[in-house]
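Pair request: fold both.
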Amino acid sequence: MEEGQSKLIDVSELRKGMFIQLDLGWMDHPFPLNSFKISTDEQIHTIVSLGVENVRHFPERSDSAVPPAAEPGAAADEPAADAAAADDRADGVASHWAARRNRARRLENEQHRLAVCERQFSDATRQFRRVVETVHASPLLARQDSESVVSRCVDELIGQGESVIRLLSESVGERSGQHSVNVMVISLMLGRSLGLQRDALVELGLAALLHDIGKLELPDRFRNAEEGFTSVEHRLYQSHVIHSVSMAQSMGLPPAVVAGIAQHHEMADGSGFPARITADQMQMAGKIVALVNRYDNFCNPARGSVVTTPHEALSVMFAQMKPRFDSVVLGAFIRMMGVYPPGSIVQLGNDRYGMVVSVNAQRPLRPRVLVHDPAVPRKEALILDLEAQPELGIRRSLKPHQLPKAAMDYLSPRRRICYFFERAADPDAIGVGA
């Protein structure tokens, strides 16, 4: 908001319908945001109780018919009215301090939940490294380690009820295992949304975790597709699928897992490789891993030269690549991730910039957003639950370079997108709006 659009007014002039801004830190008031439209008398009482004398009023963003100030009357001078006003102020002060304690508790809870997710993701990448290190010499041990990783994740997911897809820091875990674990995590959530039961989820998770294991057989420069590859080099790159299948068979993995690995580059329209089969010939695990693998490759390109935001990746897959994916699986994926998957950079309806940090897989259209607020230290950044703020929505998605420098530095858009899942929090347990 530009300074010229606002004017300072005395708190005695506050009325419902006014759009105002509090020049306070977020820990110094109980409202979800510093700027908002006043909708209740209780909000006015709370602002008065904060002890501020003036607030910024934005006439252009306020209701056109703001109720006028009440005419002073005899009742205002009576002792009973004074006592009632004093009681209101006392209640407001108590509410203010309760809100501050609640915010501190929410911040601590938020940091703890993120730490748990990042520890689980990191553990999975470390165990995957052990699989990579042992698969040639001890394929059965590699299978046991793989099953341990996947089973633990499946049991965690099944036991959660409603789940949240959570954005992690880009440095989480071991870089070499980020792609495989990311594909496993997203595939499991997608499989669950499609109604797969535990045994099928375990098989899906194994296929997702091990889909690229065959790249160990290739020289480093051929482990990722490059536009400049010759036809011979491209065939060498594609051979990683056959190597992955062979290694999965040496581990004694079930046929459904092997099929999922074999089909992770097949496309529903027959344009994939190596067998060029179509959707009616693909297993469910193959359909899921093929889609999730492509999504993760968009968000996390091997060379990092052309980074696609999660929102852009989803848009491209739906608008330009729709025939390549199974329609049921693609539809479920979009419903699960929402229009703005975690990691998307957005501008809210109140003009604030933010980054989507989590999406409830059952209610994806109202994500939780890390909001840029210069009045709040980055380490205490506000995470706004849009489900608890029905009057506020997302106006548009942005590319990171479209952010003002201050918002860019504050939000730190991810160059690598890593996810994990957690139990959906009860809003009443963590506080409305956070």
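--- second member of the pair ---
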Amino acid sequence: MSQERFWVLIAKKIAKEANEQELIELNQYIQDHPEWQFAIQNLENIWEIPLPNNKAEAEDAFMLHLNKIAGNNTNDFLEEQNTPKNSIRIIPKWVYYAAASLVIVVGFTYSLFKPSFSPALVKVQLESNEVSTRLGSKTQVKLPDGSIVWLNGGSKLVYQKEYGKILREVSLIGEGYFDVVKNKEVPFIINTKSIKIKVLGTIFNVKAYPEDKQTETSLIKGKIEVTIKNRPDNKIILSPNEKLIVENELIEAQNKRKSIELIPAVSINKLKFISPDSSVAENQWVENKLVFRDQTFEELALMMERWYNIKLEIQSTSLKSTRMNGNFEKETIDQAIEALKLIIPFKTYQKGNTIIIYQ
């Protein structure tokens, strides 16, 4: 099957215009190429939204792609019609989906269609696949080996096209909750800016936003091996219900001034359970709950920015260091702010997409 035929079948499936034979053909291709399964899944999620307003641009994008394919006959995809110039052209709905899907996958002009909500932006590059989430959204990714990753807002997951054949290795920026399929022959490896995690099969959460002061790994089930990037010879084994915290800023300081030991850059704590269901705060975002325990207001503000896709600017130093406990589930940003005011009095005003917090 040619690549163009593949995209046509995907578009027809999303548009619900594929016949039984075409669905069989597509399913067979997916079985032969499991690395495409997660991309298809996310494309279907993305296009559970209205068609783009500017359908002409979608059609033009698709036709431009076809015209650039050397040696291929576009008549295999669209039959030419002897239609007068001034008459209305009737274009099948799947054409718009094909154009939009192609644009998304190659990773350019995504803003052309301006969807009201996008669970994930999927990029397929020459050597790697990439999934990213916008602030205020989450998505679930099923990797070719069956492992599942939930991505929190403002996060990105990258893995090679050869994933699962020789190794299972991904890179994470942001926060991800992993349920890894067990495979003793092919370990699962996660790379972040500060740490490297090696697992065989387990459930755990990794929080590694570049703007955060800490990188956190919380083990729910199984066993993992963590290597800190500036200490390759020191390997840390985590057991269930343990949380590894790496101080990102201190690691960088120790790299430059090796003779000075400020405070330990690494700590291991026990996870704290939340009554009544004995869950832990670190993975509650997967259940659409923003849970914070002993967080400073500054740390909570970052969490809320990713959760609500809004900027919070705290002008008071004393407010930034105030520690808070609580959780939000269905609250709007306004309701959440009012709830926080019950913990510590402060005032706010909004300027564009930024809420200014002051005393």
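Observation on the second member. The chain has a mean pLDDT of 76.
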